[in-house]
Specification:
mainly alpha; 2 domains; two-stranded antiparallel sheet; 4 helices; disordered C terminus
Length: about 100
């Protein structure tokens, strides 16, 4: 499927995802908080479907994060992520399915 968005929008979307832009020398520089907010609002108005996340994607991300936290032995972060991914159940003795 061909992407029909203007090149400027694609560049802005990439900048938003990285919170950076290319500078004159070909390096990158951070966007300010205001620039990130403005960019997100503009693109969200023009292309709202680009910013919709399916609930299943959120759950999958939470599970990946919880498993990563378990590997890192980060109890608090694992407990934070796992209840969201498992419908409110607590982390079961450091073992995730």
């Amino acid at each position: 499927m061909e992407d029909t968005r203007p090149t400027e929008d694609l560049v802005r979307h990439a900048q938003l995802l990285r919170a950076r832009r290319l500078d004159q020398a070909g390096g990158s520089e951070l966007l300010t908080t205001a620039e990130v907010q403005e960019c997100g609002q503009q693109l969200g108005t023009k292309n709202p479907r680009d910013f919709i996340i399916a609930p299943a994607e959120v759950v999958a991300w939470q599970r990946r994060e919880a498993k990563k936290c378990v590997r890192e032995m980060n109890v608090f972060a694992a407990v934070f992520h796992h209840p969201h991914a498992s419908g409110g159940r607590l982390l079961n003795a450091w073992v995730l399915p």
